[in-house]
């Protein structure tokens, strides 16, 4: 869910809590207390959008109130629609792009970024100079902070469509570079399986290594993967060559018909296209610790308002020289082996469960355990209290229970349980998921994505990590019996859904019901929120449950 959508949900929540029509000043003040910097004028704009959708209505000069339709929309939380919204949003942006190659006129999709330190601009220029971008054409606005508009890779999809070529966004991810040669996507997120823009998950300072690619030829850069009908291959290559003459150099490679591209399989009748992420130059600044806000593919700009940031460009990436046959595995595929190793004896409360491993320097170990204990005591309903410390000479492992253990226990008892989403759960009187990433559509553990993007607020009992699993409806009675036993033993189970129920705003497939479980990474996240350096390793290995300690 984008920041704008979060704001709309919060406005609806504020109106729901009022018993009378409410004005924009009151709403702006309430939003500010929730961490949204939105003035009265911006609130009025959002209210007009809500009026048009029928979610709110004006009551004279007294203000606005939420409608029945708005209440229903708020009850759903919009989140399960957002999983499909991202893909639909990019389809809309592709359709609205009208850049003409011959005339070099028209609108292009742009990422809008804010720099809070002008020194970051030198690093960004260096990335553009080495052609790790979609295009060097940008616009800089120097107001209170520097605002930079950079061309988004979606523009290329739009240009192809304008020339009669269908381009389907499939994945956003991290492309591994070795000796300046692109080799394989090391991480992927599906556009159709997430509520956040895929590349948005990969621009934290500890995920990319754009500067390493420039300096040493080795590292990870954000990139997108598209599919195009293979009958259009020659025409696509011709257009890409024309785009290079203008300054659109973002296409990294184009596969042959049915040819695997950078570890991603391509079916017969299609070709794969890899495109450099439009926010790659900004990632380099983030890697150096600069404060950069990036909005991906949020707006359009007239191409004529953009100018090259550097005219002396040097393309450092080499063409691929090998065909990668090993596929980039998704997280769920990687975890089934561990799930099958789970065995738990209810009567003895013993057995092997899956654990997350996190590494902390021994000098911080006592403080880290203290924070975990405090986090559990402050919120025992949501934080799991089981852990194990495995001491090493310089750093120690803190093992916590992975919620995939619950899938393993149920499967051991003859019940199919499938992880569906990892999400960010907002705790309140009525808990709601505000973001979801599918286990089937991501190569990275979804919870690690939210941690790396610093989206959690575990310490203040506000936004925690949780998972959604689905179980066949026919097995519900037996599942409820087992899940209640599991919960009493200490496994974090928040909610057992019913048939056709939207569970904490998460929707599962028909003929299934959903359960919501807590992540064992919540206490670890609390450690990170207290600025203690800790390396998070999710879904690591099996461990004996009876050997774990707990907080009381």
What order do the helices and strands come in, and which of them pair?
Layout: H1 3-17, H2 24-33, H3 40-53, E1 56-59, E2 63-66, H4 68-76, H5 79-96, E3 107-115, H6 120-129, E4 137-142, E5 146-151, H7 154-162, E6 168-178, E7 181-190, H8 210-216, E8 219-229, H9 233-246, E9 251-254, E10 270-276, H10 280-287, E11 292-302, E12 307-308, H11 331-340, E13 343-345, E14 350-361, H12 362-378, E15 386-390, E16 395-401, H13 404-412, E17 418-426, E18 432-438, H14 446-452, E19 463-472, H15 476-489, E20 493-496, E21 512-518, H16 522-529, E22 534-544, E23 549-550
Antiparallel strand pairs: 1-2, 3-5, 3-11, 4-5, 4-12, 6-7, 6-8, 8-10, 9-10, 13-14, 14-16, 14-22, 15-16, 15-23, 17-18, 17-19, 19-21, 20-21
What does this structure look like?
The two termini are 37 Å apart. This protein is 32% helix and 29% strand. Strands 13, 14, 15, 16, 22 and 23 form a six-stranded antiparallel β-sheet that branches. It has a five-stranded antiparallel β-sheet with strand order 11-3-5-4-12. Strands 7-6-8-10-9 form a five-stranded antiparallel β-sheet. The relative contact order is 0.11. With 552 residues, the chain is α+β, with helices and mostly antiparallel strands. The model has no long low-confidence stretch (mean pLDDT 89).
